[in-house]
Write a structure and sequence with these properties.
Aminoglycoside 3'-phosphotransferase, Chain: A, domain 2; 11 strands; 6-stranded mixed sheet; alpha+beta; 3-stranded antiparallel sheet
């Protein structure tokens, strides 16, 4: 058998035995022989913070037939060293359950709509690993995270997000016991994660960096004063947790939980996107539709769309797809478009979280972010340098000139 690693650092466990198990699971037959494995990296350094992504082309024979070829994406999540805290969050088990149980159920509530790539194999030995269909084969690819999404790509993403949200609502209505599921109880952002030794420290460091820049902007003086009080009293943490907490009048679904540009793959017809799928369901939870929408808006839109295109995106993309999917599933009390807009406004603090913690990384130039990973960020000098760079990019600053005005209008900083 031929193994081509092509000068990539591929883990030893991704060998013939491993892929024979994968193919046995995928084909349902144990009579599989591997002919060759051809590896490449599935993402560049700095693009995936928690995991390592590999792409492999497998040539195999089955029952002595002619050789066949299949392509996989392998997601490997080491749970030791710098990633030990990730293990405590249970992200691997969450994603495992989402792909093996909940996503198939959500898709079954929709009408031949694909939400995510197929997951063929999951194991925790020797390392937490998931094997997916390679969506590059049918023509899907990620967009440019640094630029952000234009109107057409934003529409494609929101249409699919709307369908996913509708599928989650239909499933929760069909299976009421899932409303109390432990696996959907919380996402990535919890009170423990906002501890001063964890994301809480970065949240307030980035807020301090933003205040430093915003202090130089005309027309933002009063907002800056409010932000300084928020920073001093560490007010945002409780307000973010309040936004995440489900209220009795929330429009509740199974949220993606980490809906930003690199977790969306687009297929194109010519230059225009005609479909999208989501990846990375490590932060999924039961929660308001407004959480995902605000998180997506703050992290993933180009500045001009962020400035004047959000209502258009809800009215022309999200809501029509949302309502149509709920109608096809005979949902009992379909929210109105005004209900959806009110929900987005009510959960805007989750957008502020995204703008402070996610947007800096998203908008950072690829050259500057090349060394950004969980290991290097443990070094304080490196983390400070990357933090300063990430909070000074043009898109980060221009986006916040818009977002701070909007959020202040909602009273988020009062």
């Amino acid at each position: 058998m031929i193994i081509q690693k092509n000068n990539n650092n591929i883990p030893e466990y991704l060998d013939e035995t491993f892929f024979k198990r994968v193919l046995t699971s995928q084909t349902g037959s144990e009579d599989v022989d591997i002919c060759s494995l051809d590896f490449s990296m599935g993402s560049n350094t700095g693009e995936n913070y928690l995991s390592f992504i590999y792409r492999v082309q497998v040539v195999y024979t089955q029952k002595r037939s002619e050789s066949s070829e299949i392509n996989f994406i392998i997601k490997s999540i080491p749970m030791d060293g710098a990633r030990a805290s990730i293990a405590e969050m249970g992200v691997f088990n969450k994603e495992k359950i989402m792909y093996s149980e909940f996503l198939p159920l959500i898709e079954s509530c929709l009408d031949e709509i694909t939400i995510a790539p197929k997951c063929y194999y999951i194991t925790s030995e020797p390392i937490a690993t998931m094997v997916f269909e390679d969506m590059k084969v049918p023509g899907y690819r990620i967009a440019d995270r640094v630029k952000g999404l234009d109107m057409d790509h934003s529409k494609a993403a929101l249409i699919k997000l709307a369908q996913y949200h509708a599928g989650g609502m239909l499933l929760l209505e069909k299976e009421p016991s899932m409303n109390t599921s432990e696996e959907l109880k919380c996402g990535i952002f919890t009170s423990a994660l906002f501890a001063p030794t964890n994301l809480g420290k970065r949240l307030y460091l980035n807020l301090s960096r933003l205040i430093g820049h915003a202090s130089k902007w005309h027309s933002h003086e009063k907002i800056v004063d409010k932000l300084k009080d928020n920073l001093k009293n560490e007010t945002p943490t409780n307000r973010i947790l309040d936004a995440i907490r489900i209220a009795s009048d929330d429009i509740v679904t199974i949220c993606h939980g980490d809906c930003w540009v690199n977790n969306i793959l687009f297929r194109h017809q010519g230059d225009s996107p005609n479909d999208a799928v989501f990846v990375d369901f490590q932060g999924s939870m039961r929660g308001s539709i407004g959480l995902d929408i605000n998180y997506f808006f703050a992290s993933s839109l180009q500045v001009d769309i962020l400035c004047s295109g959000k209502d258009h995106l809800i009215e022309e993309a999200y809501y029509p797809a949302f309502r149509a999917a709920l109608e096809r599933g005979f949902y009992k009390n379909i929210p109105t478009i005004q209900n959806v807009k009110d929900e987005i406004r009510k959960k805007a603090m989750y957008g502020f979280l995204s703008s402070i913690l996610v947007l800096p990384v998203v908008a950072m130039n690829k050259e500057d972010s090349a060394n950004s990973c969980i290991e290097t960020m443990r070094n304080e000098d490196t983390a400070k340098k990357i933090g300063d760079l990430s909070c000074s990019s043009e898109r980060f600053l221009e986006s916040h000139k818009i977002l701070l005005m909007e959020y202040d209008g909602y009273g988020l900083f009062d």
